[in-house]
Amino acid sequence: MPIYTDQLNRKLELSSKPIRIISLVPSQTELLYDLGLRDEVVGITKFCVHPEEWFHSKTRVGGTKKYDFEKIKALNPDLIIGNKEENDKEQIEELMKNYNVWMSDIYTLKDAYDMITRIGTLVGKQSEATDLKLKIESEFNNFNFRNNISDPDSYRDRNVGYFIWNNPFMVAGNNTFINEMLKVCGFKNVFEDVRYPEVTAEQIAKATPQIILLSSEPYPFKEKHIQEFKAICPNAKVLIVDGEIFSWYGSRLLKAPAYFKQLIENISS
Question: Do 91 and 63 fall within a single domain?
Fold first, then answer.
């Protein structure tokens, strides 16, 4: 019987290729679709908005933190795919008592590449996953923020604050996948002390970020919030950014380098 290892170093034994899969992570749901799965995925979360056709047709088993166990039971999955950070530990452990649960644990691009190839092997799409990983890797290898600005030396390590929540203010800090993406763009995170700290307006002003990025998710920052941050840091450039690009670690990574290139051009213009 084949044995598969997840990114928490847990072993799973599957007697055959899974044909009833539940995904509890939006970016990994999209990955399964882009690997070519269709009927095999029977359940997703209410936050799995890509692909749109699955969002409207697949059974939703709850959010990423709270699940409908009766719906999951009715779907009779032979595989559930989750993530250490995005899913609730206690509920995942409860699912592990009755189902095969494969978990990812992602902080870096290297982790994301590893997840893509491992999931590809797990669901019988090894060739497709390898091709996808190589394409993403090539896009990032060809991307260099220095190529997109007229004065790269002055741009390097520009101080940035990346906001994921409002009231209270919360930012993405150190040891997060978002922070990895900020580094790719040549930014220096001014809030690197802890992973997801709450910060006050006074702390934001004291940190003096040159650039403030307001993520479109999980909190849906809009244009109306820009002036609120400009009042705190009058000299900062404040922009709304695509949170999916910065935080989704599946096949959406293919779109990231081109998006980062445009973002850097906008900031440096």
Answer: yes
Q: Give all strands (DSSP E) within the chain, no chain letters.
A: 3-5, 11-13, 21-23, 41-44, 59-60, 79-83, 101-104, 158-165, 169-171, 187-189, 198-199, 211-215, 237-241
Domain count, the chain: 2
* DSSP bridge partners of 90: none
The CATH number of the domain where 220 resides is what? 3.40.50.1980
Give the containing element (helix H, strand E) for 5: strand 3-5
Is the model's pTM score more than 0.85? yes
Residue 241: both structure tokens together: 């950014």
Q: Residue 149, SS3?
A: coil
Tens of pLDDT along the chain (269 residues) come to 899 999 999 999 999 999 999 999 999 999 999 999 999 999 999 999 999 999 999 999 999 999 999 999 999 999 999 999 999 999 999 999 999 999 999 999 999 999 999 999 999 999 999 999 999 999 999 998 777 666 666 555 689 999 999 999 999 999 999 999 999 999 999 998 889 999 999 999 999 999 999 999 999 999 999 999 999 999 999 999 999 999 999 999 999 999 999 999 999 87
d(CA 108, CA 176): 8
Q: 29 and 135 in one domain?
A: yes
